[in-house]
Amino acid sequence: MSSLTSNNNTIIHSGTVSRVSGDSVFVSLDKNVHCDGCRIKSACGISDSSDKEVEMISPEETFSINENVQVLIKKDLGLKAVIWAYVLPFILMIVVLMIASQFVTEWIAGLLALIILIPYYSILYYMNSYFRKKFRISVLKLA
C-alpha cells in the first residue's frame, strides 16, 4: 500500500498493528517506496524516517497484532502541531525578549526569553491528555 490522499484534507497510509495495550492500538507504518515521488510528502512527514509508529486511543474496533490496517491522518493536525511546538514558543520568546529588554540588560533579557520556554513546554507536557484527544488519528481495517 502507499500513502495517498483520499481528499484534500486526509492522508492515508498503510501499516501493521504492532501492539495493543489497554485502550491504545500502536500501528507501525510501512516503509513506502512511493514516498519519494509523492507530491504531499512534505505535509505527510511519514517519509522522513523509515520507522514510524503511531498510537490510536480508544478505537471503535478491536485489532489484533500483525493485522494490516490503513491509518487516516488529517493534514490540519500537522499544522496545529507546528503551531503549538514552534510558532507559539517563538512568539512567546520574542515578546519576553522585547519586554525584558526595556527593564534589564540584553543578556539577562535573552536568558529570560530562553528560560520562559521551560514552563511553556512543561505546560504542554502536562496537557498531554488534552492533545491526545485533540490530535486524533483514525485506523481502518483492510478487508
Describe the protein in words.
With 143 residues, the protein is of the alpha+beta class. It has one domain (4-141). It is 40% helix and 27% strand. It has five helices and six strands, in the order βββαββααααβ. The protein has helices spanning 41-44, 75-100, 106-115, 117-126, 128-134; strands at 4-7, 10-21, 24-29, 52-57, 68-74, 138-141. Strands 1, 2, 3, 4, 5 and 6 form a six-stranded antiparallel beta sheet that branches. β1 and β2 form a beta hairpin. α2 packs antiparallel against α3 and α2 (75-100) runs antiparallel to α4 (117-126). The mean pLDDT is 82.
Question: Briefly, what is this?
Answer:
By secondary structure, the chain is an alpha+beta fold. It has helices at residues 41-44, 75-100, 106-115, 117-126, 128-134, and strands at residues 4-7, 10-21, 24-29, 52-57, 68-74, 138-141.
Number of strands: 6
What class do helices, strands and sheet pairing give? alpha+beta
Average pLDDT: 82
Number of domains: 1
What fraction strand?
A: 25-35%
Order of helices and strands: EEEHEEHHHHE
Estimated radius of gyration = 19 Å
The number of distinct helices, counting runs of at least 4 residues, comes to 5
* Percent in helix: 25-40%
Described by strand count, sense and barrel closure, the largest sheet is: 6 strands, antiparallel
**Morphology:** elongated
Termini distance? 13 Å
- Uncertain regions spanning at least 5 consecutive residues: none
Secondary structure blueprint with pairings:
Elements: E1 4-7, E2 10-21, E3 24-29, H1 41-44, E4 52-57, E5 68-74, H2 75-100, H3 106-115, H4 117-126, H5 128-134, E6 138-141
Antiparallel strand pairs: 1-2, 2-3, 2-5, 3-4, 5-6
Helix pairs in contact: 2-3, 2-4
